[in-house]
Amino acid sequence: MAGAVVNPPVVAPKSAAAERVMDKGLKSGALGYISNVVIGVASTAPGYSLAATLGFIAAVAGVGLQSPAVLLVSFIPMLLIAFSYRYMNQADPDCGTSFAWVTRALGPSWGWLAGWAIVMADVIVMANLAQIAGIYSFLLFRWDSAANSTLAVTAVGVVWIIVMTYICYRGIELSARLQAFLLSAEVFTLALFAVVALVAVYANPPDGSLHVNANWLNPLAIDSTGALVNGVLLGLFIYWGWDSGVAVNEESRDSATGPGKAAVVSTLLLLAIYVVVAIAAQAYAGPQNLIDNADDVLSYLGGRVFPHPLDLLLIVAVLTSASASTQTTILPTARTTLSMARWGALNKAFAKVHPRYQTPSFSTILMGVMSVTWFVLIVNLSTNVLEDSIVALGFLIAFYYGLTGFACAVYYRRELPKSLRNALMLGILPGLGGVLLLGIFVKALIYYGDPANTSSAGLFGIGVPVVVGLGSMLVGVIIMVALRPSFAPFFKRPREVADPAVLAQGGPTG
């Protein structure tokens, strides 16, 4: 992993960068580097993401056995954007992350929209998380009739959102301790599943099993570029969330460098988890079984890989994964809106911090309320909440991650000619990440705009994922335009460029 960040460009030490960030009242120094990594990995919810996405990737026309290759390709733009997060955070460890950085580099309008995309993506995904948490809560007790009841699942999902909102409200340290416990149990279970499944494939192969083939990792074996791009849009969702470890930068002991390094390490850990588990699942069951059980892949596999009652382990893993991610989704959203308010881009109410718990009180509670409202709404809007929401999220993820990549290259533009390392790490790699995500956005927009390529009936003749994903961005544009007169000082901010004096003070430690 250390090899991924060899010879980094010259960047600011902690003190120089941290001095630029206004004090927002959050509990500084509460988290260490390991906590940043844990929050970054836990926020992606590996167990939940695999359960909710693996079957849908296999189902993309032309992908099939190349699902692991899709996960490998999807990792590339994530790693490039992780570098953007690392170096932008070193210059400006603001909990608003993409909002703050895009505002500085590309201007306040683009920054506001980046912040809006973060909030909307987090609200939309809460419907997926809450639904999975509700379903798996019942599956844990073998209560299948309740797990198939929309009303019952919705009720339990709402309870999960409320509980995790309360934990986030009570303090960052409690949140971090819970995350460490939940993630440890989750990763252990996924590793055990992969080992047992692969041993079974070679020792006592079940019907439909396949021996592992290196060609599964070859993206060139996918039928077409279009199929690869459509699969990658789903793959973006499975990796998305590692930036939560950066969103708690102002509460971290090494705010300027630790969270950024953790972002890069988080993406590498996720790559290992996803590729290994995907290969094991496909080898054991074959792609068609994954497709046929796309809504419940790990529950389906758990009952076949593990004997009873050990088959409940994967259900517990997905349940803890979804609940953990519910919590870590609330964390960055509340801190984004807190930052936006402190920058003068939102009403001052969003800037309120609890005097005892030192958490964004109003923003956290509002995030919980918005999540419950959206969850109840989408359950009645879509016939396939999981797939439609995942694709819709892909648009929002590609948008604000891509903007962050461009922002890094633009912000450091005067430093790029000074060395090859600067040009590569601060400009070429982040910019390439932005270009890749922009291309995926456009291609997927064309494909999923046709209702025939989605699982639900279209709205206004357009695919539901595009209506939700692009529609939420258009709503953001309208709201931003309406707010401009009230927040004129923010929208008149000039673009900035990296201070050479900051970069000249030496490289990062380690």
In words, what does this structure look like?
The chain has about 500 residues and is mainly alpha-helical. Helix content is about 70%, strand content about 0%. It is built from 21 helices and no strands. Mean pLDDT is about 80; it is low at about 1-15 and about 505-510.
Tally of DSSP helical segments: 21
Rg to the nearest angstrom? Answer: 22 Å
In percent, how helical is the residue content?
A: 55-70%
Sheet having the most strands: none
Q: Find the count of extended strands (DSSP E, 2+ residues).
A: 0
**Distance linking N and C termini:** 13 Å
SSE arrangement, N to C? HHHHHHHHHHHHHHHHHHHHH
Strand content: under 5%
Question: What is the strand and helix layout of this fold?
Answer:
Blueprint: H1 14-18, H2 33-44, H3 46-59, H4 67-91, H5 98-106, H6 108-139, H7 144-147, H8 150-170, H9 172-203, H10 225-239, H11 244-247, H12 258-285, H13 287-292, H14 297-305, H15 312-342, H16 361-381, H17 385-411, H18 420-448, H19 464-483, H20 488-491, H21 500-503
Helix pairs in contact: 2-9, 2-12, 2-15, 3-10, 3-15, 4-10, 4-12, 4-17, 4-18, 5-6, 5-17, 6-8, 6-15, 6-16, 6-17, 6-19, 8-15, 8-16, 9-12, 9-15, 10-17, 10-18, 14-15, 15-16, 17-18, 17-19
